[in-house]
Specification:
With about 220 residues, the protein is of the alpha+beta class. About 40% of the residues lie in helices and about 15% in strands.
Length: about 220
Amino acid sequence: MYFNHYPIYLFLFIGLISLAGCKKKDMSLKLNEPRNIKGVISYKRSFGDLNDTHLKVAQTLGIPPLASREAAEQMKEKLVRIANNERYAVDSLTHSIPYLVPSAGKLLDSIGANFLDSLTSKGLNPNQIIVTSVLRTQDDVKRLRRRNGNASLNSAHFYGTTFDVSWKRFKKVEDKDGRPLQDVSADTLKLVLAEVLRDLRKKDKCYIKYELKQGCFHITAR
C-alpha cells in the first residue's frame, strides 16, 4: 500500500517545495538610486573634433560616396545593416539609410552596451540610445539641404563611418514582467552618455562633435 501511493506523495511533496520557492513578483514602482554621475566638464571642449578631422578618417576607412540609394544597394557586401536591438534603437531615418562599415557598426554596439552597463552601475533604470542619422547618399544630402541649408555637401556621413546619437531623446526599456520603472530624465541620461563617449574617445576609438542645434553627438569610428 505504501509503495503504491509513494509516487503521489512524492508529487505532492515536490509541488509544495515548488510553491514555497515561488515568490510573488514585486510590482511596486522601481525607483532610481542615482550614484556617481559626473558627466563631463564641458560638452564643447570634451567633444570638439571638427568636421575636417572626421572627414580625414572617414575618407581613409570608409566607402566611396554614393550617388543614390540604388547605388548603396550594390555596396551591401561592404556594409552592415543596423536595426533596433537590445543595445540601441534606430530612429525613423528620413535622410539617411541604416548602413555602416563594420568598424562603425562595432563602435555603435559598444556605445549602446556600455551605456546600458553604466546605467545599471549608477543605479538608474535602463534606457537605450537612439541613432538619428547614419549613411547618407548625395541624393539624401540634396533633399536635406532643401530643409536645412546648412547641411554639409562634404559630410563624413557619406562614407559609412559616421552616425549621430541623440542626447535629447532616449528609449525607455520596459521591464519584461511589467514592473513599472521610474523615468530617468534626459539631462541625467545625457550625463551618463557623455561619460561613455568620453572614455571611448580617450581610447582612440572615435572622433566626436557635440552638435547643439541638432541635439546629437556626431560620431566617426577610428
